[in-house]
Amino acid sequence: MSDAASDSPELRRTLAEIDKLLAENRKLLAESDKLYAESRKMTLETTLYPVIATATVIGATAAFIKLFLG
């Protein structure tokens, strides 16, 4: 397609701007994916750490009871 409209400077600028916006969009999507993965990790950690802490306290309490009460 080699008519005058496809060779216009305005069209080339518009296409270049679209390419730039698409590249920026890809960067933002990659950053969004990264942040989502981090949030999933944080959710796991905030769920897991209290369970580990509770188990530690229960285990320590059981050890002290066994130590002092036989």
Question: Any overview of this molecule?
Answer:
This protein has 70 residues and is mainly alpha-helical. The chain has one domain (4-69). 87% of the residues lie in helices and 0% in strands. The chain is built from 1 helix and no strands. The chain has one helix at 9-69. The longest helix is centred in the middle third of the chain and has 61 residues, at 9-69. The protein is rod-shaped, with a radius of gyration of 30 Å. The N and C termini lie far apart (92 Å). The mean pLDDT is 87.
Protein topology:
Blueprint lengths: L8 H61 L1
Q: What is the structural class?
A: mainly alpha
> Could you give the order of the helices and strands?
H
Strand runs, count:
0
Beta-strand content bin: under 5%
Global geometry: rod-shaped
Distance between the termini: 92 Å
Largest sheet: none
Stretches where pLDDT is under 50 for at least 5 consecutive residues are none
In helices, the fraction of residues equals over 70%
The DSSP helix count reads: 1
Radius of gyration: 30 Å
Arithmetic mean of pLDDT? 87
Q: How many domains, as an integer?
A: 1
Quick structural summary:
By secondary structure, this protein is mainly α.
Salient structural properties:
70 residues; mainly alpha; 1 helix
